[in-house]
Amino acid sequence: MFSGIMSEVEKDILYFQKSGGGLRFTGGEPLSQPEFSAGILKECRKRNIHTAIETSLFCGKNAIDLVSDNVDLFFDRSENIRQRRSRVYTGKGNEIIRGNFSYLARQGKNIIVRIPLIKIFTDTENNINAITQFVAENP
To answer: Which CATH architecture has domain 50-139?
Structure first.
């Protein structure tokens, strides 16, 4: 099922080996298609290709469980950590996101937090401090 994709990925294996790079899942939300992502990630693991996922972590724990054993690095796109502001701007709370971040942290996964700076929405001192505090509270 993944042979076409993997034949394209394999063209860059030498580059990955020389540069220390690998395959990064991004664009939209890779964890919205966890079976597809998990399949490719498993194939990458078989070939010793470094893997990363850029995600909002707005997904079920089952999606994380499907992929996490084959992901070397998670990029978390943290936007607004405060519950009320998250609800106002997105229409949804962030309990799922916070829970999934903590879940990955407890598993000892490598996570890089990235904050897209959006004027008045995410670039406030209060928001950045709240994200910093939340990350520091996790192992």
So the answer is: Alpha-Beta Horseshoe (3.80)
Alpha-carbon distance of 10 to 42, in angstroms, equals 14
Alpha helices, DSSP H only, in the chain?
3-10, 13-19, 34-46, 61-67, 83-90, 95-106, 125-137
pLDDT tens track for 46-75: 999 999 999 989 899 999 999 999 999 999
Name residues whose C-beta falls within 8 Å of residue 12's C-beta, 6 or more positions apart in sequence: none
| Residue linked to tokens 């990925």 | 9
- pLDDT digit string (tens) for 20-50? 999 999 988 999 999 999 999 999 999 999 9
**Domain extents in the chain:** 50-139
Backbone angles phi, psi at 3, to 5 degrees: -65, -40
